[in-house]
Amino acid sequence: MAKRVLVVEDNELNLKLFCDLLRAHGHDALPVRDGRDALSQARDFVPELIIMDIHLPHVSGIDIIIALKADPSLAKVPVMAVTAYAGKGDEEKIRAAGAEAYVSKPISVMKFMDVVNELFGSAG
């Protein structure tokens, strides 16, 4: 069963990789390059999973996660945070914002899909 996944990522190569992987596994992936568009795109697309880069220009992925979790129509959508800048305490901050999963870059394709599948298992 295809699931809808919103992918918020400013790096074009990562965005393409994530969307291609999801589509190869039969999912419907919507790429969002600008974090400022993430909330409106999520409301329109009604995703079943959101993959969120943390370090975005203009707005922090953490702030977007907080806004998503504050929106009653999106609060229950699981969020998988992805970041290249994993410092001490970052995972705790990201999880405290509401992310259900955390994966550091560079990601392994297997790990990425394992986490996606785990989140779909918990969401559905």
Oligomer state of the chains in this structure: single chain
Strand content: 15-25%
Distance N terminus to C terminus?
A: 11 Å
Using only C-alpha atoms, the radius of gyration works out to: 13 Å
Q: Give the biggest beta sheet.
A: 5 strands, parallel
Number of strands: 5
Quick structural summary:
The chain is α/β, with parallel strands linked by helices. It has five helices and five strands; from the N terminus they run βαβαβαβαβα. Helices cover 44% and strands 19% of the residues.
Question: What can you tell me about this protein's structure?
Answer:
The chain is an alpha/beta fold and 124 residues long. The protein contains 5 helices and 5 strands; from the N terminus they run E-H-E-H-E-H-E-H-E-H. The protein has helices at residues 12-24, 38-45, 61-70, 90-97, 109-123; strands at residues 4-8, 28-32, 49-53, 79-83, 101-104. Strands 2-1-3-4-5 form a 5-stranded parallel β-sheet, sandwiched between helices. Helix 3 links the parallel strand 3 and strand 4 (79-83). The radius of gyration is 13 Å and the shape is globular. The termini are close together.
SSE diagram, text form:
Blueprint: E1 4-8, H1 12-24, E2 28-32, H2 38-45, E3 49-53, H3 61-70, E4 79-83, H4 90-97, E5 101-104, H5 109-123
Parallel strand pairs: 1-2, 1-3, 3-4, 4-5
Overview features:
five-stranded parallel β-sheet, about 120 residues, alpha/beta, 5 helices
